[in-house]
Amino acid sequence: MKTTRVLASLIMACGVSAAAVAAPPVMLNNAIITQIPKADRDSFHEAVAQALNSSADGQRTQWTSTHQRKNAPPIAVQLTPTQTSKVKNDQTCRFLVGDFSRAATTEKWQFWFCKQPDGTWKASSN
User: Fold this and answer.
1) Is 99 helix (H, G, I), strand (E, B) or coil?
2) Helix (H, G, I), strand (E, B), or coil: what is residue 117?
């Protein structure tokens, strides 16, 4: 499964890289993930890294934004790795589920990530 450039830009700082575009950018205009404030991106990256590096399958990592525009509700995310498996060359891969919410709006993002020899995680393009 390919990920979007938006997701790639949000998670690359934590050592996670993503593949090319899967959806036209117009489809992401109102996506919650695109609304994460710049001031909160580092802490979001840390939460993604923690989920991939340290959480057991089924264990949730909770993250909530702290920098919002006036009167905008915070963004809450639950990151849950599942289905950790070994693939060719003994490479570890994890399926990461992200449940995003802001007020009454919710979205679910799901990606396979595989750990690279240098220790970073890369979203699978399959």
Assistant:
1) strand
2) coil
